[in-house]
Amino acid sequence: MIINLINLPWAMGSITVFGLTIFLAFIWASFLFFRQTKEEFANDEKIVSFLINIFLGWLTGARLFFYLGTLRQFGSLLKIFLPWRYPGLSFAGGILGIIVAAWLWSRRQQFEIWRLTDAATQPLLIFAGGFFLGQTLVTQELFYLAGLGLTLLSISLSFWVLKSYRSLTWYPSGKIGFAFLSANIVLCFGFSLLAFLLSSGLYLETLLSLGLFFWSLIILLLRSETPLAKKINQQIINLRPNQK
What we know:
- The chain is mostly helical and about 240 residues long.
- It has helices at about 15-35, 45-70, 70-75, 90-110, 115-140, 140-165, 180-200, 205-225, 225-240, and strands at about 5-10, 15.
- Helices cover about 70% and strands about 5% of the residues.
- The protein is globular.
- The N and C termini lie far apart (about 60 Å).
- The relative contact order is 0.11.
């Protein structure tokens, strides 16, 4: 169901409740991210460039995986480029799109992306909350309401995690990135569990969420520098071809 707020005849579309919710969540998250990371960038233009790339990565991943998960209902590939007329977004696809976009941007800019992960954790959770809030208002489904609750829980936990993770005995490295990875672990595992219990037909979404959960878990382990992590890292180094 689509709830229109304002019809836009010249754009052959309208401003919807979900679209407005996502837009406001993005503005709030971007403002918070800008305030927390402006000293990490050489200038404001790089922050804007990063945020635009992140948004486009999210939209691309969310639309692409929604299309792949609903091939029979979606029909023509051209509809993927008309989200205002043929709505639908994949939550897990959006997360994957953000991760890929951030990695590609950092490679182009020769920027250490891990430097931003602590500051990006709560803005990303706020944006995820906007997604679930918008879906809850539109569909009134328990699945999305539970997702909103999961996101609010993750935001609450993030305050403690950001303050305390460097003192955790089972994360001796104290490397930055713990907050983002742990939030992704909670969010993706919780979402896949909710999709399995409360929704039907979200098979690709569930598998993708579980994939992101295991990816975050593995990266968190490798960055922890525990004895097991050091052993695995050494084995990975040994598998790499020698470069003369």
